[in-house]
Amino acid sequence: MDQPKTYDRAYFDAWYRRQGINRGAILTRKVAMAVATAEFHLMRPLRSVLDVGCGEGVWRAPLLALRPKLAYLGLDNSDYAVDRFGRRRNLHRARFGDLEHLRFDRAFDLLVCADVLHYLGDAEVRRGLSGFAALCHGVAYLETYCAEDEIDGDLHGFRRRPAAWYRHEFAKAGFVACGSHLWLSPVLADEAAALEIQAPSPRARSRTGAST
């Protein structure tokens, strides 16, 4: 039986610094895509981001490089990440399932949950997703890899769920796919044109992805 996963300094050193996962130009392009998509659908500049499962808060710097006045809030259950970077990067301790009840003084323009859901149990995913519609009134970037994908990265604790499982759960939470891991919140979904939203593909496609 696998040992419980610990998101300590050794973990982040191994995957984020030595392996370079979700760093550099790859991260910059992801952030730019998420910001542009959110602003296109909101029809205004991005004002706030909630980063769920943020780790060390690596999204914060490229977000602020694009939108210096942005309000960024990161949530993670890693004691190491929050203790080390919490004050400087506005990171706070929370489990994904806490989002069922956790609320703030605003609904966020962009909700980021990158490389997180495929490591969580079914019940916790459903609990957390049930709060997404209240937390995000813009666009969600939900980078998630599935059984159909060829995964190159951290496979410890990886849950090989089919893409259809996630589509069902995201739709149940009120979110509508608009491509490239991006989902419109219920507030924006009804305003989207027919070809701005993405219907499930009739044929599964395999794509190499890095998970951390």
Automatic annotation (TrEMBL):
The yes or no answer to whether the keyword Transferase is present is yes
What Pfam families is this protein classified in?
Methyltransf_12 (PF08242)
- Give the keywords, sorted: Methyltransferase, Transferase
Note the InterPro entries from the entry: Methyltransf_12, SAM-dependent_MTases_sf
* Residue ranges annotated for the Methyltransferase type domain, each copy included: 50-136
GO MF assignments: methyltransferase activity
Q: Does the keyword Transferase apply?
A: yes
Question: Which GO annotations describe the biological process of this protein?
Answer: methylation
Q: What is this protein called?
A: Methyltransferase family protein
Instruction: Tell me the organism.
Output: Pseudofulvimonas gallinarii
What's the source species' lineage? Bacteria, Pseudomonadati, Pseudomonadota, Gammaproteobacteria, Lysobacterales
